[in-house]
Structure formats: structure tokens, C-alpha cells
From TrEMBL:
InterPro entries: Neur_chan_lig-bd, Neur_chan_lig-bd_sf, Neur_channel, Neuro-gated_channel_TM_sf, Neuro_actylchol_rec, Neurotrans-gated_channel_TM, Neurotransmitter_ion_chnl_CS. SUPFAM superfamilies: Neurotransmitter-gated ion-channel transmembrane pore, Nicotinic receptor ligand binding domain-like. It comes from Mytilus galloprovincialis. It comes from the Eukaryota. This is Uncharacterized protein. Residues 1-18 form the signal peptide. It holds the Pfam family Neur_chan_memb.
Length: 390
């Protein structure tokens, strides 16, 4: 009888300690051999009866969210309870033994499966998992798994986003009129939840849907990204580089540094983008991604404008009248200062000074305008983006 010996060896003795190994042996022999237990048969004596599964979901951890493949990985276990009418016994015949633990493969169990799973459909549980059976035939089975479920991940508000993901369980091989999945006493339990560092669970919800043929339990988990890392390592540097870029317009063209400076800032942006790329969600559509492109665009604009400015800066021909007229307002204020200093200057002199406008003056005037215009554009865009995000 090697099979029986094996069976007995893997049995651990239940809650109370007054029983002997022989009690356990005979209990198992009686339940599974003498009574001809068939794990293929749904354990209700009247096969028209419904078998009710009470399921609690214990969420242990959020392992990760993969934006590109729209996947949520969680660790947890289902605490499942049902009544097996073929596994009842009278404790007095077995030294008062009121419960036993035996490997899950010995008893009937529901074909619970993750409905919105990411990998191929597989039954929960493994051969190392035991079930606990008590005298009234109540079976407790707690399959521990790493669940990979599909989830629609919307990165629009990255890194201030939160995601709601469903984890659905069904009994894949029984109809709803045979096995009904119902929520247990606790529903979804997050007491044992381990902090993940990036994602925090902010709320959970439970849906119980019964369709004609299938009974489904859905655990909906809303998680929130902790933005700290992304703010410090991506958002702040992008804003700082943006500020640096504006200062291209502060450098005078004569310094000879203007072009080199703007190119350096542009390259810093490009290199930085490559570095942070690995930290960003690999999907399009985040507002922050668009903001980075906007900043890159401004940097590119600065480089082009600087190149053109330098070209005109060294021209010696007179500035067209139109441009002089545009500068008139600024010249007027200049003139006032001149007037104050040298009040003897005649109207004729002033007219002359107007004619003296050079390209150099115009470029410096243009720098002034461009600095403030791009400052205001970047500032307002930044404010709008962060208001939208938060
Ligand atoms: C067996 O376990 C179930 C579930 O924990 C419980 O409801 C039931 O009362 C237990 N039966 C006995 C006789 O203790
Ligand atoms: C989750 O499942 C419930 C019930 O099936 C459904 O009403 C809800 O819209 C689902 N939520 C998501 C985010 O898919």
C-alpha cells in the first residue's frame, strides 16, 4: 500500500492535539478510499444544488504597471471557502479530530481563473498548496499567485496619474447555476499590503456580476503613482534647462558666445531626453511628454533665431525704415535720457540719432523683445501644464 503511506505522510494534523497519527490515517482512508471520494464530481449530494464559493482577495503587493503593454502585476491570494458534502465526519470516531490539511490535488476544487489575465489561462494554485477541511466539510483553499492582468492605463496625467484596474475571477469550467462565486466576509483585504515605492493603493471596490452562464467576481483597485522621483529627476531639470535656454537672449551678440551657448543648451535637452526616456511611460499621450517636446521646440527656435541674429548683427548697411519705426518707442525713451543729460541738443541732432540706428542696435532690441516674449510664453505654458496635471 505505498499510495496510502504516501498519503498519510503528507497529512498534517489539525487544530487540536489529542489525536494520534492513526486517527489521521484512518480519517483520510475513510474520507478518500472507503467513501470512494471522486474529485471529479461536484461535491453536492443533489447535483441540482448550487455550490457557493465564498472568495476574499488578499492583496499583498502591486508589483508593477507596464504602460506599454497595458499590464498590471499584483501579488495576492484568494481565500476560498466552500462546503464539500462528501468530506464530513464525526470527530468522536477519530480521537476528536476536527480538521485536517491535505494537498489540494486530493479534493474537488473550483477551476478558478483570472479572466482578464495576460498570460495563458491557467488554473490557480499549485501542488504545494494544502486545503484545510473541517468536520462540517468546509474546505478552505488559499492559492497564492502573481497575477498579471490587463488594465487600460492612461498616462495623460503622468506622473500625477492614478489608474483603476480590474482583476476578475471566474470559474472557467462551471456554469453559474453549478458554482456561484460570491464575496466572502472581507471582500478585498489590503492589511497585508506591502509598500511598492511607486504605487499606492488608494481605493478598492468589488463587483459581483452574474450572467446567465457565468458568475464573476471583479476586484477593482485604484492606484496612485508617487510622483516624487519623477518631479525631482525629470520635471525640475526640464524646467531648469528651459530657464537656461531663455538666457541665450541675454548674451550680447558681440560676446561671440551666443551661438555656442544656445547649441549647448539644445544638446543638453536632447541628451537629457535620451537619458530620461527609460523612466517615462512607453506610450504617447502624456501631457508632460508634450511639454518636453515644447521645451525642445523652444530650444530649437532659439538656435535658429540666434543664427539669423548673428548674420544680421554684422551687416553695415542701414536698417530699413520700417524696422527703425518699430524701434521708435525704445529710442524715444533713450532720447529722453539723452535730453536730460545734454539739454543743449537741438531737434536736428535728435533726427540724426534716429538715422544712426544700426543693425547692432536692432539685434540688441530684438533680444530684449525675444527674451520677454519667450519668458512669458514658457511661463504661461508651464503654469497651464502644471495646473492641468495637478
Ligand atoms: C468549519 O469551517 C467553517 C468556515 O470557517 C465554519 O463556518 C464552520 O462553522 C466550521 N465547522 C465547524 C463544525 O466548526
Ligand atoms: C471593472 O468591472 C466593472 C464590473 O464588471 C465595470 O463596471 C467597470 O467599468 C470595470 N472598470 C474598469 C476600469 O474596467
Amino acid at each position: 500500500m505505498p499510495a496510502t503511506i504516501f498519503l498519510v505522510a503528507i497529512i498534517s494534523i489539525g487544530a487540536t492535539s489529542a489525536q494520534t497519527g492513526d486517527n489521521a490515517k484512518s480519517l483520510v482512508t475513510d474520507l478518500f478510499t472507503t467513501n470512494k471520494y471522486q474529485k471529479k464530481v461536484r461535491p453536492v449530494r443533489d447535483q441540482n444544488d448550487l455550490l457557493v464559493l465564498m472568495v476574499d482577495f488578499h492583496l499583498i503587493g502591486i508589483n508593477g504597471v507596464d504602460e506599454a503593454s497595458q499590464r498590471l502585476t499584483t501579488t495576492g491570494y484568494l481565500s476560498t471557502l466552500w462546503k464539500d458534502q462528501y468530506l464530513e465526519w464525526d470527530p468522536t470516531s477519530y480521537g476528536g479530530m476536527i480538521s485536517i490539511n491535505i494537498p489540494q490535488s486530493y479534493v474537488w476544487k473550483p477551476a478558478l481563473a483570472l479572466q482578464n489575465g495576460f498570460t495563458k489561462l491557467q488554473e490557480l494554485g499549485s501542488s504545494v498548496i494544502n486545503v484545510n477541511i473541517n468536520i462540517s466539510g468546509h474546505v478552505i483553499w488559499e492559492p497564492y499567485e502573481v497575477f498579471e492582468s490587463k488594465c487600460n492605463i492612461d498616462v495623460q496625467y503622468f506622473p500625477f496619474d492614478h489608474q483603476t484596474c480590474n482583476i476578475s475571477f471566474i470559474d472557467w469550467s462551471h456554469h453559474a447555476f453549478e458554482v456561484q462565486i460570491q464575496e466572502g466576509t472581507y471582500g478585498i483585504v489590503t492589511d497585508e499590503l506591502e509598500d511598492d515605492g511607486v504605487w499606492t493603493v488608494i481605493s478598492t471596490k468589488l463587483y459581483h456580476d452574474t450572467f446567465d452562464l457565468e458568475s464573476r467576481l471583479t476586484y477593482s483597485v485604484t492606484i496612485k503613482r508617487t510622483p516624487g522621483f519623477y518631479v525631482l529627476n525629470i520635471i525640475v531639470p526640464v524646467i531648469l534647462l528651459g530657464v537656461l535656454n531663455l538666457f541665450t537672449f541675454v548674451l550680447p551678440a558681440d560676446s561671440g558666445e551666443k551661438m555656442g551657448y544656445s547649441i549647448t543648451v539644445f544638446l543638453s535637452f536632447a541628451v537629457f531626453l535620451i537619458i530620461v526616456n527609460s523612466e517615462l511611460p512607453k506610450t504617447a499621450g502624456s501631457i508632460f511628454g508634450q511639454y518636453m517636446i515644447f521645451q525642445l521646440g523652444i530650444a530649437l527656435f532659439t538656435v535658429c533665431v540666434t543664427a539669423i541674429q548673428l548674420r544680421f548683427h554684422f551687416r553695415t548697411d542701414p536698417v530699413p525704415r520700417l524696422l527703425s519705426a518699430v524701434m521708435a518707442c525704445r529710442c524715444k525713451s533713450k532720447r529722453k535720457i539723452t535730453d536730460r543729460n545734454e539739454n543743449e541738443k537741438s531737434d536736428r541732432d535728435i533726427d540724426e540719432s534716429k538715422l544712426e540706428e544700426t543693425w547692432k542696435d536692432f539685434i540688441s532690441f530684438l533680444d530684449f523683445i525675444l527674451f520677454w516674449v519667450s519668458f512669458l510664453v514658457v511661463l504661461s505654458f508651464t503654469i497651464v501644464v502644471f495646473l492641468k496635471l495637478s
